[in-house]
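Much of what follows relies on a compact textual record of a protein's fold. A record is reproduced here so that you can trace the correspondence yourselves:

. . .
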Amino acid sequence: MKLSRELLLELPKSDLHLHLDGSLRSRTLIEMARERRVKLPAYSEKGLYAKVFKDRYRNLSEYLQGFGLTCSVLQDYEALERATFELCVDNQEEGVRYIEIRFAPQLHARPGFGVVEVLCAVSDGIERAAKGFNARPEVRDGTEPPFHAGIVVCAMRFFMSGFSRNYEAMFEAFPEMPEEQMFGLASESLVRASLRARDEHGVPVCGVDLAGKEGGYPAADHQRAYALAHQAFLGKTVHAGEDYGPESIFQAITECHADRIGHGTWLFSTDYVTDPAIIQKRQYIKRLTEYIADRRITLEVCLTSNLQTIPGLRSLEAHPMKKMLRERLSTTICTDNRLVSRTTVTKEWEKAVEAFHLRPKQVSDLLVYGFKRSFFPGTYREKRGYVRKILDYRDAVSARHGIFLNK
């Protein structure tokens, strides 16, 4: 049965893996750069798409180069609030009803504008967008579900002094500290500040993430930060299996209590198992996969991003999501970076439906995972009630299109 673009656009969707600094509007980036005298390689959308935000990249390193530009303009309250507001609106306009905006606050902090203030700016952008959308008559009368958003703070596996004023101050304060300890200390500091923002300022911080280069920078360096987040009832996700193998995913689960895994692309790859102590690689992967399935650890899949950054991945038909679905793993469809990958949630769904020949029931399951496995920044009762509204609206939309997804 053909699932039309109109149906996919109208269905209530989520995005659980969405980077703020990778998802600016291109026009906004240009405008902010001019206002803040930030040099860009080009000052037109066409020029930026040709030189920076491409259809395809040589590797993950080239893919990440554009973040230096976006982070450069997101260094004050007005820029962060506006970028967040526009990101929420862009999602609302394509039927997305829940997002988790992730970013590394320490890349935007400086003396006088600390992590808490950075988080408050993003929170204000969410609040402005949510108030506008949720004041619509069809939302107020219960015909359609409201829009909600949470914030996932990203710790960095690796950073240097030049990454931000915040990190520069850390290197100056602890010049003799081994770098792995420095990385862990920064993560702990981030979690503590995020908890203050949540508990004292009402910021919807709902989770913590670990981003950056996997190889050589293990999740174990951030164990104490994740233990702190775990004790404070934050959701835990980790970028793992994107640029490294199953062992990185294993460590994210065992060392960081991960509820979700960002990407998990190399979960099934024996070639990426590097520990010489692991003799039976296939057995190791099988048991890891079974553990992930049994614990309902959710994989945040970003199809376009993976296709752009993995040279050996020639088509989506070869993407491991096909096997993830076959293994009945809890999987969600995400954008990663709307600008850097030049994509939208609806485009990701279209690609998944076409590449994996998704049946209506599979579409329904994937939609549900995106809401049920969220780190919803409210009470359990509020989340249950919200998911119920989403499911009712899903059924109403699919019925209008003559398709029953939950059959």
About this structure: The two ends are 13 Å apart (CA to CA). The mean pLDDT is 95. The beta strands are 13-19, 96-103, 148-156, 205-211, 235-240, 260-263, 298-301, 331-333. The longest helix spans residues 179-201.
